[in-house]
């Protein structure tokens, strides 16, 4: 599934029974961005979303931004220009396998 806004992403999380992983871009349409979504997702009372691994994949990465995402609970932050798509998909796949084992 693909969400273009934080509002739409929240709706998917609330409506779907199961989500294996979230691939999150910092830039989303609307007032809120990826930081707002991950903060909402990792809140203490949001048990359903709290356990989903979130991979941030974005065009930019200041050390402050990366640090904030990681401290909020992102599993990993990828800068698109530093990683091939295949590498990102491989790492996400491996993390899903770790959850199964």
3D architecture notes:
The protein has 101 residues and is of the alpha/beta class. It has one domain: 3-Layer(aba) Sandwich (Rossmann fold). Helices cover 48% and strands 12% of the residues. The chain has five helices and three strands, in the order αβααβαβα. It has a three-stranded parallel beta sheet, with helices on one face. The radius of gyration is 13 Å and the shape is globular. The two termini are 25 Å apart. The model has no long low-confidence stretch (mean pLDDT 88).
CATH fold field value: Rossmann fold
Query: What is the number of independent domains?
Result: 1
- The main sheet orders its strands as 1-2-3
Overall mean confidence score, pLDDT = 88
Helix fraction by DSSP (H/I, runs of at least 4): 40-55%
Which parts are unreliable, with pLDDT below 50 for 5 consecutive residues or more? none
Question: Based on CA inertia axes, which overall geometry fits?
Answer: globular
**End-to-end span in angstroms?**
25 Å
Second-tier CATH architecture = 3-Layer(aba) Sandwich
Largest sheet: 3 strands, parallel
Number of helices: 5
Question: In total, how many beta strands?
Answer: 3
Binned strand content: 5-15%
Question: What value does the Rg take, in angstroms?
Answer: 13 Å
For this structure, what is the CATH homologous superfamily?
Response regulator
Structural class: alpha/beta
């Amino acid at each position: 599934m693909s969400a273009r806004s934080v509002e739409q992403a929240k709706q998917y999380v609330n409506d779907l029974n199961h989500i294996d992983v979230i691939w999150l871009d910092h830039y989303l349409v609307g007032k809120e961005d990826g930081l707002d979504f991950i903060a909402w997702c990792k809140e203490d009372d949001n048990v359903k979303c709290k356990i989903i691994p979130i991979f941030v994949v974005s065009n930019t990465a200041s050390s402050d931004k990366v640090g904030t995402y990681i401290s909020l609970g992102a599993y990993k932050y990828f800068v698109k220009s530093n990683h091939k798509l295949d590498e990102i998909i491989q790492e996400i796949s491996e993390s899903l396998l770790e959850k199964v084992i």
